TrEMBL record:
Gene3D superfamilies, alphabetized: Carboxypeptidase-like, regulatory domain
Protein name as annotated: Cna protein B-type domain protein
Signal peptide segment: 1-26
Keywords annotated in UniProt: Signal
Length: 408
């Protein structure tokens, strides 16, 4: 394992504003009836190490993601991050991380994953029921380097003022753990819609911040196939999603998340489908898991905004462990498009859409889709530019309807 020296100076002094309280295991996060998604917590092994496996693809036929960077970013001090790489089997190990709350970033040429994890001390087998995972299983969202750059630069968090100080606490060891530790299978509603919820880590007061202006995108084969935004509680819905393997990428003013999952048809829906339709669905359903009744809800605890700087550096330095290296982006101008302007954007849209990423960081979006000054509208200026660029490049990104999270 290689440790990176923390030479990146996070914008607006993020490192001074995050602390954890390992001695207090209160939790303010809950999914459904107090459920805490299992992929968000892991216990250290007997030697005090954190181990895991990174994979990509359908759960039943997933492939090991070799040579993938895995970075732990302690929210108590984001500059003190540690990174390693997976071996040929997609496995990795990080020796002796401190108990606490971390931003997890996994990135390679095959895809990316990023969300919050709670690292707990080693425990005995009999001390918990159900037992949290002792080996992280990370599912990547399939996104090549070009798509990853566009997603991060165009939708990334915007910080124009000093962030509020928060104390993030570990998930309670008494929390109800969802069965699937990887969030690999998610059951669609009987209507075929996908419902989910994104949350920030809970503070020491047991509260989570609002998630206004967070964009949610589903990707397949490095192409965006659906997008929407969340409400203030982080809920979102995507209509009539076909069963299959997807990557979810969410980014905005509050933070960033990405992971892979398999969408399976509803058990209730199968009882209402005609026999011919059931036959057509059979092969897909087998690939994505026969039993869908016990699928956990699609709930993810996103990484707070400081972690986005690590994600940005990763997509720029995929071939080396340089996630602590400062990254500079050129900025042309700062502008915000109105909803009407965005609606009328075509392939000729361009101009200045960069913006200052919190002052000293230097733009955050560069010449290919910036997001400075867009905290209230989730980066629509950068989005319009990206859509225009992709329309010209024929990448398949397309120009689907986008829900605009304009604030009153």
């Amino acid at each position: 394992m290689r440790s990176c020296l923390p030479i990146l100076s996070l914008c607006v002094g993020f490192s001074a504003f995050f602390t954890t309280s390992p001695s207090s295991f209160a939790v303010g996060f809950s999914a459904t009836d107090g459920q805490f998604p299992a992929q968000h917590w892991v216990v250290l092994d007997a030697s005090g190490s954190l181990t895991g496996t990174v994979a990509i693809g359908e759960a039943e036929a997933s492939q090991a993601a070799s040579d993938t960077q895995v970075i732990l970013v302690p929210l108590a001090d984001p500059e003190q991050r540690v990174c390693t790489r997976t071996d040929a089997e997609g496995n990795f190990s990080i020796a002796n991380p401190q108990v606490g709350v971390y931003g997890l970033v996994a990135y390679g040429r095959q895809g990316m994953a990023s969300y919050t994890i709670h690292v707990l001390p080693p425990i005995s087998v009999d001390s918990l029921s159900p037992l949290p995972q002792s080996h992280l299983q990370i599912a990547l969202a399939g996104a090549d380097q070009n798509l990853s750059k566009r997603m991060v630069r165009s939708y990334g968090p915007v910080v124009t003022t000093q962030p509020t100080k928060h104390r993030y606490q570990l998930a309670s060891v008494k929390s109800n753990v969802a069965d699937d530790p990887t969030l690999r299978r998610v059951e669609l509603l009987p209507s075929g819609d996908l419902e989910g919820q994104l949350r920030l880590p809970a503070t020491d007061l047991g509260e989570s911040q609002s998630l206004d202006s967070l964009n949610v995108m589903l990707v397949q084969n490095s192409k965006v196939v659906a997008r929407t935004t969340v409400d203030s509680d982080g809920h979102f819905r995507i209509a009539e999603l076909k069963p299959g393997s997807y990557g979810l990428i969410a980014s905005g003013a509050a933070g960033f998340a990405s992971f892979g999952f398999d969408a399976v048809i509803s058990a209730a829906r199968t009882t209402q489908m005609p026999s011919r339709a059931l036959f057509r669905q059979a092969s897909t359903q087998i690939r994505h898991g026969q039993s869908v009744i016990c699928c956990p809800p699609l709930v993810c605890e996103i990484c707070p905004s400081p972690v986005i700087t690590v994600v940005e550096s990763c997509v720029e330095h995929v071939d080396s462990c340089d996630c602590c290296q400062e990254e500079e982006f050129d900025v042309e101008d700062e502008s915000v498009v109105t909803e009407d302007e965005f609606a009328s954007a075509d392939a000729g849209f361009g101009g200045g859409y960069g913006g200052g990423y919190g002052g000293g960081f230097g733009g955050g979006g560069g010449g290919s889709g910036g997001f400075g000054g867009l905290g209230g509208i989730a980066g629509l200026a950068g989005l319009a530019a990206v859509l225009a660029n992709d329309s010209n490049s024929g990448s398949g990104f397309g120009l689907p309807v986008v829900t605009s999270p304009f604030l009153p």
